[in-house]
Amino acid sequence: MVDLGDWNELLAPLFADERYLKIRRFLIDEYNNHVVYPDMYDLYNCFRLTPFSDLKVVLLGQDPYHNVGQAHGLCFSVQDGIANPPSLDNIFKELKSDIGCALPKSGNLTKWAKEGVLLLNTSLSVRAHQANSHSKCGWAWFTDSVIKLISEKKEHVVFILWGGNARSKKNLIDASKHFILESPHPSPLSAYQGFFGCKHFSKTNEYLIKHGLPTIDWDLTK
């Protein structure tokens, strides 16, 4: 297992669980016999790039992008030099509308991860060109456990839930000590039904300021 910093101790019971070992056996077979995204060394990038001690926001996605060169272990993010998927373009449009950020040239969200935004997909892997193809392998148990762990062990975390899959996780979060923001998905199919105008970026920082916490610098152009 790769070194995940201060997540190591927190996630150790999950990695030792038979349910995770079953996921691992499934992944070994998938990576050996199919094209799978992201690269196996990027599977846990969201944890590696956002230490638990620095975590202020959880942005929940569903499934890694399944086309060549896109996924690298952070939800909604693509690697440098890769065209933005439509949902990511809509996220950037809302970002500009909400807090005035210029549209970034790259869809790589690593800066957000380093700012304390855990960019967590509910499934951490996918077979090439087959959306949701790993959604039944056990990832839901693992990522649900991570969400519950964050809810239990942290205070004043902002959980951003875009779309039905993310919003279905709301019951895992203690709303009495965290801030939950919900909207339709930024996909072109639903963005105009309430995602545009949700102002989740500014609302996140307003909440963090209220609780004396450092804000997120959402500007990806700096």
List the helices and strands and how they pair.
Elements (H helix, E strand, L loop, with lengths): L6 H10 L1 H16 L2 E2 L7 H5 L7 E5 L24 H14 L10 H6 L1 E5 L4 E2 L11 H15 L4 E5 L1 H4 L11 E5 L16 H11 L12
Parallel strand pairs: 2-3, 2-5, 5-6
Antiparallel strand pairs: 1-4
Give a verbal description of the structure.
The protein is an alpha/beta fold and 222 residues long. It is 36% helix and 11% strand. The chain starts with 6 loop residues before the first helix and ends in a 12-residue tail after the last helix.
Task: Name its key features.
222 residues, alpha/beta, 4-stranded parallel β-sheet, 36% helix
Percentage of residues assigned to helices? 25-40%
| Class of secondary structure makeup | alpha/beta
Biggest β-sheet: strands ordered side by side in the sheet: 3-2-5-6
Q: What is the H/E string?
A: HHEHEHHEEHEHEH
Average residue-wise pLDDT: 97
Distance between the termini: 33 Å
**Radius of gyration over C-alpha positions, nearest whole angstrom:** 17 Å
Shape: globular
Strand content: 5-15%
* Structure summary, number of beta strands: 6
**Please, how many helices?**
8
Largest sheet: 4 strands, parallel
